[in-house]
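Quick board copy: two proteins, each given as sequence then tokens.
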Amino acid sequence: MLTFVYHLLLLLYCIVSLPLQVFKVLTGKASQVKEQFGFLPRALLNELRNETVLWIHGVSVGETVAASPICAEIRKQFPQVKIVFSTVTTTGRVMAEKLIPADGFIYFPIDLPMVVKRVLTRIKPAQILILETELWPNFIKIANQMGIKVILANGRISEKSYRRYQLLGPYFQEMLQKMDALVMQTQKDVDYVLALGAEKKRVYNFGNTKYDVNIPPHARGGERRLVEELQLDGSAPILVVGSTHANEEELFIPVYKRLKAEFPGLVMIIAPRHPERVKEIELLYMKAGIPTVRRTQLPKVQREAAVIFLDTIGELLSAYRLADLVFVGGSLVKFGGHNILEPAAYGRTIFVGPYMDDFKDILSLFLKNDACIQVKDHNELAERMFYYLKHPAEAEVKGGNARQIVEENQGAAQKTVELLAGMRQKGPLG
């Protein structure tokens, strides 16, 4: 019954989304639509022919970041393997092309059996690595039927997701049992996936690959370029506000005004999670009387504004390196937070809001070790940021603690690749 309902919902989605697909085709995104419906570039298929292929899937930006250390480790140890990397979102695709050393990038196929089978038949992967919680029933079932090994890497299950999956009962259990390995981030994730019906012998706890922060060459070399192009020489302090969401950027208007009054040289760099939202954010700041400039307008013009919108993808890592203080977004609004490990790897002083549900375990570790500052609202945020700008030695201690946590918890990516290599008779890496 659940299978029938699922297929019915998929068909309804295809029908309802038809106008959107047509719009994408008419606006230059025909290749994305074609890939989602199983029609892959011929050049890619020719490159993969008769090769050992590993397919890695990360739905969007966060999963792509988690996949990056794994891909780097695979490329280092097994350069002969061809890597195909898929995403669902456009922002994920852009990020993947910057971070992932893959041989090809595609959009993930819609989970209709005929589409999934077409794609799997053409790519012929020996193994599929799925990041975090991107579980598609037909994709997993057909891959299993075709003898392709499917591994969940860096797996996590939130309490909310656990309750939702419980409602699916045997249907979800059957899907889990078709997977060859489930590599989870924490013991709690292990407990959840076992309670949902996974076989214990296939479940592993390797930690979180996001601790294995892979600073790509463009990020290491991009810091000086950013300083020059954003015209930051002599600017201090620098506040980087990363991965913000709707209704969050406007909360930084009073924060900015409070800090700017005391520190006239302050520059605030805001990186919305979805750069296409910059136009609406600009209007908010304009109404507040705060001059702004887009990163893409620099260095073409002389920067006079002290608020810069990072309207590009893939430069946030370099921006974190330049920061005196970092705020990680999605946490002042009820979104669940974002990854704090990237600024932590740089030893930055990190602030988050009250809504960090998606990163509870990481945040708990950081708070326990005096490596992060959590605030209840934007008013407290302004006061705490003001305090640490006045006391830079204390801020430096927090940043050092953050960097130490990252260094002490690395190794999940290497363990994951070792697991793949250990499946000698079952996959490409033996």
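And the next:
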Amino acid sequence: GTNQDMAAFAQCAKKLGLKLVLDVVTNHTGDVIQYKDREAFVPSDLVNSKNPAWLNDLSNYHNVGDMNSCWGEGSCMQLGDFYGLDDIATEKPVVYNGWADVYGKWIKDYGLSGFRVDTARHVDDNFFKNWSPQIDAAAKSVGINDFTIFGEVWDVNPINLMNYIRRNKIQTVLDFPFQRSAAEFASGYSDATTIENLFSYDDLYTTATTNASNMVTFLGNHDMGRAGKIIESKRINPANELLPRVLLGHSLMYLTRGIPSVYYGDEVGMTGSGNGGDQRARQDMFETKVSAWKSEARIGSEPIGDGNSFTTSASHPLAIYLGELAKLRATYPGLANGQMQIRSATGNTLVLSKYDPVEKIEYLVAFNNSKQPSKVTVSTSSTAKWKSLLGGSTFSNKGASVSLTVPAFDAVVLQSSAVM
């Protein structure tokens, strides 16, 4: 598309009350540079193929081969070409200042609200310290005071992941540890202690300006595959359990800490053809001529055939449930951003509290990944009365103790009805 196309797109989004978060790449370009006996060169017909001009200067690249077998001095993960894509020397001022100019202009031209930074683990350790302040300044110059930058750091170990926030100063990151744990719990592969263990690392992300609540949580994406396919792959379950388990996975994402991110098409039960990974999970929502996508199994609905995925979105059980969860977060901000505390993690049942310090209201949120209802008694912060906001739970309280039944494959939310 053209700059004019993007401007029109941004204007349309603004009219609809939507904010734009753009996926940007700072680590690499397309594969133009080639090697002969470890000597980097650019084919004559591609010498000036990149824009801006500084991207055509070989000295602005590391030129040490693929990241899996590089010959550079240092980390091949940071110096090597990402699957053959030309690796830029992001430690150089001409590079990080150049990227600040490019992406800063896009913010000014299109009123963007945030960036998802691709392959953020592959840039040098100081890149975000050098680049992010310039991006923030560009946003503030046009009145965007809460610009968000989150990096794609593909690492499922919180001890590794937290370094990119605390040491490398990425504002926040995609929460790959959550993705793994949530998919395993939703599938029934693991029990509630898996989620409890995940959240026990949350303090590692805490600094004066960061915490785990600002991490971007997800269940599936364009690289890994779709939420339903991933949950299905974790454990063999009866086919009729897949929809409720996928609903459970999304409830875990919306009702714990973090900023939930849903991959388009998951709300209408797309699964991805074949093994469901990477490019097989990237079909669009319009009518298709690809036979595999016409017959692709859907969760909660029939294959799309000759139709399109927009017509079913209003009535699809996944879309309806996601709408309910989003409305809950909007209506009760404590559910989205409140202080979180694990109350119980036993067997198939996880119970946590969310506390709203402004309204002084506590919420109890419980999840059950079993095919049987579960009963649990937990301690709470007060002797308040409770009411149900989500799910079909029966409950009672005695003093500061609440006993509740959580239906199979369900999430329930209770709200304290008195100020504490």
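Board note added afterward: The chain has a mean pLDDT of 96.
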